[in-house]
Design a protein that fits this description.
With about 130 residues, the protein is of the alpha+beta class. The chain has one domain. The chain has 3 helices and 5 strands.
């Protein structure tokens, strides 16, 4: 898991910078597209629910988590999905939206991450549904 550092354009917020980094137009039969459906920024991280549409038009949603470091005119980030079990917890509004938009976590690390988020926010344990493998 490496970090990417680059100059931050003048007048562009960190949130807008991250949206630009992770948005890509879908071109049918040619190019996979990525669209930010919901996001939230904290002092330390950027959280987003992303829609990925492959060249055939098939799409799926996933949770993106980026650790952020801003230093002067530079911005640095390292990106991961919830399936990698991030060590940083999602803020409550984002977590609630994530649970609505992507009710089934993507693998065991994602299940464990969501459980840590749920406990941190004092939310009831999720019940029902088949366990992910």
């Amino acid at each position: 898991m490496g970090w990417i550092f680059c100059p931050r354009p003048i007048g562009v917020s960190v949130t807008e910078f991250m949206r630009r980094e992770f948005t890509q137009n879908h071109v049918p039969n040619e190019k996979t597209g990525f669209e930010i459906l919901y996001d939230q920024m904290t002092r330390e991280a950027y959280f987003a629910i992303v829609k990925r549409t492959d060249p055939t038009g098939q799409s799926r949603l996933f949770c993106l988590v980026c650790l952020i470091e801003v230093s002067g005119s530079e911005i640095g980030y390292t990106d991961m999905t919830e399936s990698m079990g991030p060590n940083i917890l999602a803020p409550l509004p984002f977590f609630q939206e994530l649970e609505k938009m992507i009710p089934e976590p993507d693998g065991q690390y994602a299940i464990e991450w969501r459980t840590r988020c749920r406990v941190h926010h004092g939310l009831a344990e999720k019940t029902g549904g088949a366990p992910c493998s």
